[in-house]
Write a structure and sequence with these properties.
CATH topology: Rossmann fold
Strand order of the largest sheet: 3-2-1-4-5
Distance between the termini: 51 Å
Number of helices: 8
CATH class: Alpha Beta
Length: 231
Amino acid sequence: MTRPAVLLLSGGLDSTTLLASAKQHSWQVYALTFRYGQRHDVEVARAQAIAADYGVVRHVVADIDLRVFGGSALTSSDIDVPKDRGAEAMADGIPATYVPARNTIFLSYALAWAEVLGARDLFIGVNALDYSGYPDCRPEFITAFEQLANLATKAGTQGGDRFTVHTPLMTMSKANIIALGVSLGVDYGATTSCYDPAADGAACGRCDACQLRKKGFAEARVADPTRYARA
């Protein structure tokens, strides 16, 4: 018997692989995407197309505006997206592309929707290996949020099934995630990872996300279908 679950879908490589895996395991997926004032709004259109392709039960695009706070290269035009950084630089500290408390906010929305649906399962494609140093992609954060979900909700405090935050990609390398997706038939050409894409959606090829994506395809020995902007 299938169960309902709320899955955070960004239109990126990881979340699309997550969706393909959830569908393979017969979850009834309710997909949630955010238009949060990000400079790379192309991801919303990609997420809409991907959700339609996978036949999710319902796809919601929630509008919130994190530009009112700023503090990130993804939500403020005053902060440049880092480019051409080597692996050592990317591993050093939290980058300017970190959006303050983003995953906490996103999971809180997912939790609210799950409670309305009577669902007890949330899916998020965070990864603790090939990531850019974001503190809200770590296992400790997911464990803490799961505890909060079961303390701060009517559903969590009145017995029955507990909320679970599923992170099946957490300990996988980008190459392994791509290999999994290929085995599931994921069309990675339909996804986007770039932090600073061109107006036509072409990836810059130089930001941290593009570099990690390129590295993943190279290590997986899979042709990279990404359309990159010309130098």
